[in-house]
Design a protein that fits this description.
alpha+beta; 10% strand; binds zinc ion
Amino acid sequence: MPPDPFAGDPNDPASFLEPDDLYDGVDGPLSAEERDAVKEDLENVRCFRRLLEPRGVRGISMMCEECGEEHFYDWPIIIANLTTMLNEEAAPVHEPSAAPDPDRYVSWEYCAGYADAVDWMNSGPRAFHRRWL
Ligand SMILES: [Zn+2]
């Protein structure tokens, strides 16, 4: 675990959870619906990683609702966070990697579009559907 950059900061974003933040919004036990959503995210992220890591993409960038800045999450961190949520342990919150290279991160929407395009090319137009969105 890297040191918490917000340790001792009264505005520590981890002290209040934003419901619309992608991975740290779930407080308490997950409902069956939330578990399914997390499982689906996990499946998608593994697929995105398989497609994009060989191309040099290190992870996903997300606009943070709390501080209004972009954060960069490496694939293993995203997968660990989702797995932690499924296991109903306290999720590690707000853990951007240290000194990331923004060029090596893409948005979730980029991943979804990329995966859809690969899917389409592999299976032909009939298989096209908005599975990732
Ligand atoms: Zn933030």
